[in-house]
Amino acid sequence: MDRALLTTGSEFIDFGYELDLNLAVQLIKKSGAARVGLQAPEGLKRATPIVAARIAEETGAEVIISGDPCFGACDVDTRLSGEVDLMLHLGHAGIGEEPEKVIFLEARMNEDLRGVVEKAIGELKSKRVGVATTVQHVHKLDGALEVLAEHGIEGLLGSASGRIKYPGQVLGCCYASAKALDVDEYLFIGTGQFHPLGIALATGKRVLAADPVTCEILEIDPDPMLRRRFAAISRAADAKSFAVLVSKKPGQKRMELARRMMALGEARGREMFLVYLDNIEPDRLLNLGARAAVSTACPRVALDDAAKYRIPVLTPPEFEVLVGKREWEDYLFDEIDDIKTARRNLKQAP
Q: C-alpha angle 105/192/110, rounded to 5°?
């Protein structure tokens, strides 16, 4: 396995991940693919020319790089996949039964989790803890569980199912593996705060985040996010016109949910209109003249990027709060966990 990634001439570029490029080359040769597509998230985009050169050199295949943004395994470039014999999607784990020609080449980080878990021990309050991480660290979870056990703490991993490929894995749009556990608190091991915040919002339980890169330990406080979401709902309260956003991305497309939001809004006297789009950007919403929006795409559109938009963008459960179908006290974190929907959309995408 190559440290991501590779030498090119005398230059070595380290992107902090490992990708099994040898496996990719073997699969390409075995399939006889003459034209290969290459897709990567923004954090690995600069690696794609190096990967393309390696593949072309070792297989003789023509390699076409997807230059569009990529936000996850839900965001397969279906147009490019239709132009090539084989598609390599770098970085993510698959979310289900994708088209056979799409191969997910997972990116792994080799940071040892034992040290940061050892540091987190003193902050844990329970002897029974749910443990979660992203695909980049799932191969190291056994070591984390061993450290917990050495301190008399039972670490539990949620089962793989639906969109979740590995035990203990969570996605930005799906926390089913964490929610299935009967625990009082969670230890998230990984970088960034979105995933542990998602666990806190989805479960209502205490979440401790342990970053194996910086070795920082942080207790997640969901209250600031909840306050921002309440403010977004309040801002949208006077809006008479709502755009209901439906994503073209095969793993995010929730048309049935969008239609339910349409009917719900219309029944409450709101002007509702469906908008079908790929990347959701502030200017596109303004040009439509909408005073507010309900996004049925990735939950992170509304939660992560709220500051980008001049109009309030709500998740479907938040829109339910706005129209009185749901109480604020029953706030629900929006998740995409219907594997059948994702599977169908990937097969039917143009």
A: 45
Please give the mean pLDDT across all residues of the chain.
88
Backbone angles phi, psi at 108, to 5 degrees: -120, 150
Provide the 8-state DSSP code for 161. Answer: B
What type of residue sits at position 55?
A: I
More confident residue, 299 or 12: 299
Q: Is the pLDDT of residue 124 over 80?
A: yes
Quick one: which of 263, 213, 204 has its CA closest to 112? 213
Q: Facing residues of 104 across strands? A: 89
Angle, helices 223-236 vs 194-203, to 10°: value is 80
* pTM listed for this prediction: 0.86
Residues 6+ apart with CB under 8 A from 192: none
Which distant-in-sequence residues (6+ apart) come within 8 Å of 87 by Cβ? Answer: 36, 37, 38, 39, 76, 77, 80, 81, 99, 101, 102, 103
Share of the chain above pLDDT 70, in %: 91
Q: Quick: pLDDT tens for 219-276.
A: 999 999 999 999 999 999 999 999 999 999 988 999 999 999 999 999 999 999 999 9
- Mention every residue, 6+ apart, whose C-beta is less than 8 A from residue 49: 65
CA geometry: angle at 194 spanning 228 and 214, to 5°? 125
Going by pLDDT thresholds of 50, 70 and 90, the confidence category of residue 14 is low
Query: Is 60 exceeded by the pLDDT of residue 154?
Result: yes
Task: Identify the helix (H) or strand (E) that includes residue 87.
Answer: strand 86-91
Decide the pairing of beta strands 2-4 and 17-19: antiparallel
Mean pLDDT of 306-325: 93
pLDDT at 15: 58
Rounded Cα distance between 231 and 228, Å, is 5
d(CA 54, CA 7): 10
Whole-angstrom Cα distance, residue 26 to residue 93?
19
